[in-house]
């Protein structure tokens, strides 16, 4: 028994408790916002789901802190296949909003899971292992082709079976960030972006649906479709602007409480904060997420091995992409593509995925070289 308590003490001494505490602060803040946003809808069920997901997320955070990231990344082929099977399950069991055609959820009665959220973690692990296996020849044409195929297959499957453009773009941001930080030659990025620029007219004409095109166009002029694709951005900006410095108070936001603000507990939770807690509330959210991301980036630089360095890079990129895009779409400077704000938005799958990702960061910290370890 003494040995058990000694091992437990050593574990909690090494696990990144500070990162976990900041994540918990974000979750509690998010629960308060969700409760306010959904009080007119009967907030009890939303709070229960979010609370259960948070508790499960803490457990997963601690469990994943035990993982040896080097060993896990060496199994990248199996992780990759598991991710593909998870994504492809949406083709059979996927459900979603009929008006958007987004079939991103698998539902078991009243409970739904979003495979793409867990898939982000699997994608990061698998890609880290693949890059590590090609480390000595990373910039060779064959390696670049193989890594490109590695990313395009799951992203293509995800978009094909679920039309989840938001998650697909996050996958690509993770891919680009991990390759760049791995040290691939800059010429490959220049060539890829040049090719993407040249192909963009074809992508616009043949691959994007009319509703997806409108999502981009209304960023520049929401009045093009004020009752359709521009409605979300218009109502969100009204909500944030009406909050001014200190906000109207929790439960007092007119856009939120009268139902004008869509997806208020999920995609537009930042707008709820802007209306009810004002600029100060928005600034607090940004500061909390910045602390979490900064901790992730710090551990990226202090990782003791190349695979853990890549995994920390992927997690950092995932959090940055989702934070920037969510806040951008709430403030009307980016297209509305349905991405949650990490730890603040309602959504069990999203909460679990973020805590799992942070658990990987904690694992990297536990195994960092003693001379590099920082509290």
Largest sheet: 3 strands, antiparallel
Order of helices and strands: HHHHHEEEHHHHHHHHHH
Q: What's the count of strands?
A: 3
- Give the strand line-up of the largest sheet: 1-2-3
- Total helical elements: 15
How is the quaternary structure best described? single chain
Shape descriptor reads: globular
Task: Describe what is shown at a glance.
42% of the residues are buried. A three-stranded antiparallel β-sheet has the order 1-2-3.
List the topology elements:
Layout: H1 2-14, H2 17-37, H3 44-65, H4 69-74, H5 76-93, E1 94-97, E2 102-108, E3 111-113, H6 115-133, H7 141-162, H8 165-182, H9 186-207, H10 210-220, H11 231-243, H12 254-257, H13 269-302, H14 306-330, H15 348-366
Antiparallel strand pairs: 1-2, 2-3
Helix pairs in contact: 2-3, 2-13, 3-15, 5-6, 5-7, 6-7, 6-8, 6-14, 6-15, 7-8, 8-14, 11-13, 13-14, 13-15, 14-15
Q: What features would you describe in this structure?
A:
This protein has 375 residues and is mostly helical. The chain has helices at residues 2-14, 17-37, 44-65, 69-74, 76-93, 115-133, 141-162, 165-182, 186-207, 210-220, 231-243, 254-257, 269-302, 306-330, 348-366, and strands spanning 94-97, 102-108, 111-113. The protein has a 3-stranded antiparallel beta sheet with strand order 1-2-3. Strand 1 and strand 2 (102-108) form a beta hairpin. The chain is globular and about 55 Å long. Residues 371-375 have low confidence and may be disordered.
């Amino acid at each position: 028994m003494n040995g058990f308590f000694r091992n437990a003490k050593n574990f909690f001494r090494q696990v990144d408790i500070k990162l976990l505490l900041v994540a918990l602060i974000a979750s509690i803040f998010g629960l308060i916002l969700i409760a306010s946003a959904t009080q007119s809808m009967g907030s009890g069920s939303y709070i229960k789901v979010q609370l259960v997901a948070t508790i499960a997320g803490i457990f997963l955070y601690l469990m994943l802190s035990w993982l040896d990231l080097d060993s896990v990344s060496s199994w990248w082929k199996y992780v990759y296949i598991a991710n593909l099977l998870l994504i492809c399950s949406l083709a059979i069991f996927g459900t979603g909003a009929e008006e958007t055609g987004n079939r991103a959820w698998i539902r078991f009665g009243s409970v739904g899971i979003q495979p793409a959220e867990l898939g982000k973690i699997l994608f990061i692990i698998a890609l880290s292992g693949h890059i590590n296996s090609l480390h000595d020849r990373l910039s060779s044409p064959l390696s670049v082709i193989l890594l490109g195929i590695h990313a395009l297959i799951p992203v293509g499957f995800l978009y094909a079976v679920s039309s989840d453009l938001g998650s697909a773009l996050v996958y690509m941001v993770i891919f680009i960030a991990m390759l760049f930080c791995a040290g691939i030659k800059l010429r490959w990025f220049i060539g890829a972006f040049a090719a993407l620029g040249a192909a963009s007219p074809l992508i616009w004409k043949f691959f994007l649906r009319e509703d997806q095109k409108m999502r981009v166009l209304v960023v520049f002029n929401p009045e093009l479709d004020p009752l359709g694709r521009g409605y979300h951005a218009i109502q969100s900006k009204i909500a944030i602007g009406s909050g001014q410095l200190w906000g109207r108070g929790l439960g007092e936001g007119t856009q939120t409480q009268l139902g004008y603000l869509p997806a208020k507990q999920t995609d537009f939770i930042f707008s709820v904060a802007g209306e009810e807690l004002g600029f100060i509330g928005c600034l607090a959210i940004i500061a909390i997420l910045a602390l979490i991301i900064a901790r992730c980036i710090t551990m990226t630089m202090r990782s003791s091995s190349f695979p853990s360095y890549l995994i920390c890079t992927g997690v950092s990129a995932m959090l940055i992409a989702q934070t920037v895009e969510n806040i951008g779409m709430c403030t009307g400077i980016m297209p509305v593509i349905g991405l949650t704000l990490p730890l603040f938005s309602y959504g069990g799958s999203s909460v679990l995925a973020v805590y799992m990702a942070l658990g990987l960061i904690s694992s990297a910290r536990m195994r960092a070289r003693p001379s590099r370890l920082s509290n």
